[in-house]
Design goal:
23% of the residues are buried. By secondary structure, this protein is an alpha+beta fold. 31% of the residues lie in helices and 33% in strands. It has a five-stranded antiparallel sheet. The N and C termini lie far apart (69 Å). The protein has two domains: 50 residues; 153 residues, Immunoglobulins (Immunoglobulin-like, Sandwich).
Length: 211
């Protein structure tokens, strides 16, 4: 009957520690349930933040007036399409002329002149978008200089140059999460006549944060 001895010992062990085994199983199962609930709660909170957060959108100009103006204006219209206010809104923007073969700088660090704007708070579903208007200028090492509309018009007509308008918008939602949007567009016959490679870097710059 020796072959039954291990079975008898195992049975005795199970009966002796049965309560402890059940308690251990219950604890493990309870921890697993808590983990599942925590994950579900995290997903629900993330979905809530996505549903309730601010979403900053923008409209870029389809054309740039060159007639009857002292300086050529470039207007960015900013709208909050979300359900709650966008806080600490700020941005950088540049409107300039580039010649064929030149790429946009797309750099707003020190030593790269640009325009700053601080609307602060943008509330959702406003009846009128926030308009930011700047002149099309040449950005040198120190200060930008206006481009006479007649000179700009001549460069555009001859396809010598083109207008580039780009910027960066940063803001926080009501949960304190930081968000950003990059935008870039161009205008001119040099672009319209099929040389879209000119805007390759500009197009790649268009992006938003991934949360």
């Amino acid at each position: 009957m020796r072959f039954l001895k291990p079975f008898v010992l195992l049975t005795q062990f199970v009966f002796r520690y049965f309560k402890g085994i059940l308690e251990t199983i219950a604890v493990v199962a309870g921890v697993a349930v808590l983990v599942v609930y925590a994950l579900q709660l995290n997903v629900m909170q993330h979905q809530l933040r996505l549903d309730q957060r601010a979403w900053i959108g923008f409209t870029l100009p389809s054309n740039f007036p060159l007639e009857g103006v002292v300086t050529t204006p470039a207007t960015l219209q900013i709208t909050n399409f979300g359900k709650t206010a966008a806080r600490e809104v700020n941005g950088d923007v540049v409107a300039t002329e580039l010649m064929k073969g030149e790429d946009p700088d797309l750099d707003f660090s020190i030593g790269h002149p640009h325009n700053r704007f601080y609307p602060g708070v943008i509330f959702p579903n406003s009846n009128s978008p926030l308009a930011i208007t700047i002149p099309v200028q040449r950005y040198g090492a120190k200060t930008p200089t206006p481009i006479p509309p007649s000179e700009l018009r001549q460069d555009l007509e001859s396809e010598k140059g083109y207008i580039i308008f780009y910027g960066h918008i940063a803001y926080k939602d009501i949960f304190g999460k930081e968000h950003w949007t990059n935008f870039c567009t161009g205008s001119g016959k040099a672009i319209e006549h099929g040389t879209f490679d000119i805007l390759r870097k500009c197009i790649q710059y268009n992006d938003v944060d991934h949360d």
